[in-house]
């Protein structure tokens, strides 16, 4: 039995206590469940008690000597951050495209000329499994260093059975080897591979008939995601792929309305997708439909910044009643970053979320977007002890001092990993 850990005297403990109520919207996004002079008791990797330091001192009076004590005086303590949307497993890198975009080429021009997602697909097809594990491990280490303890990861740089499986198996191995919790999504429909150009529907058939059954059989993914975008997959093709995935028990997600308004938000609401991602160009009707259906908006302000596009209408979505989560979108093209703290800053600066809303979007709502809210995303009794101690006094300061990593320490399942 490992020693209990007692974190005490936190200037501010943001518990995000939610009592299993599910995705937060409107005013509930601002309720952080703050405790001043806060305290947490951890045993066997789980949270056993949360309260003020006085309360826990009384409750554990006969055991305080057993515990490893962490003095959090003057510091903010939050749940481990959750990143609900990444493409973290990939080969190679695309710094030359960054340069090309600054010289005037657009993201879609580069992709249509065989670069972009296609370039990373070639490099990922060529990479050995061990190489992908090595490169992804470095990125996961960096996530942890930025206070992120749970990460969703998508396949989609294979777009053939062999490499899609390779990416998903890499995630499965990393889930066993790495401290981070990795949540796998199948995204064979990330683009139409070059060899299927002009035969898009044939690729969709192949994905449905040959890839999905194997992914499901080997239990390699929980979610199924499609890049629904003009020139990539139509809403009709997206619906076919996601319906087929549902029959295999995969929960739908959609990369929706990123580059052009294309009915992606409406589709996500219609088919009961757990979330819709990006949404830079989501229509007003789409936003209303998502609020009504309870579809979580997973917004990616670092991607918007990196593509030099206007960010999604996060403020408006919250005001309309959409539950908002945020994410890095970590990928080699449109958002090569692992910094969720930066994403929280940007959620405030470019989408006008308040500091409290941004924290909810990066913890509890992010956990809801990947079906993990019963285990992570808040500091509540019975949940995993995934905890961050920050070098700031309060949550406002966390969002205010921007572009800096304020992490002081991170515990994953009660083990100090940073
Ligand atoms: O979420 N938009 C599609 N997919 C990724 C980018 C992938 C890439 O450029 O490699 C995204 O932004
Ligand atoms: Fe993405």
Question: What are the main properties of this structure?
Answer:
about 425 residues; binds N-(iminomethyl)-L-glutamic acid; about 40% helix; Urease, subunit C, domain 1; TIM Barrel; binds fe (iii) ion; eight-stranded mixed sheet; single chain; 16 strands; alpha/beta; 16 helices; eight-stranded parallel sheet
Question: Briefly, what is this?
Answer:
Helices cover 38% and strands 21% of the residues. It has helices at residues 53-59, 95-102, 107-112, 117-126, 129-145, 161-177, 200-217, 235-247, 264-271, 284-293, 301-306, 314-319, 340-351, 355-362, 364-369, 395-400, and strands spanning 5-14, 34-43, 46-52, 68-71, 76-79, 81-83, 148-154, 181-189, 223-228, 251-256, 275-278, 296-299, 324-326, 387-390, 407-412, 415-416.
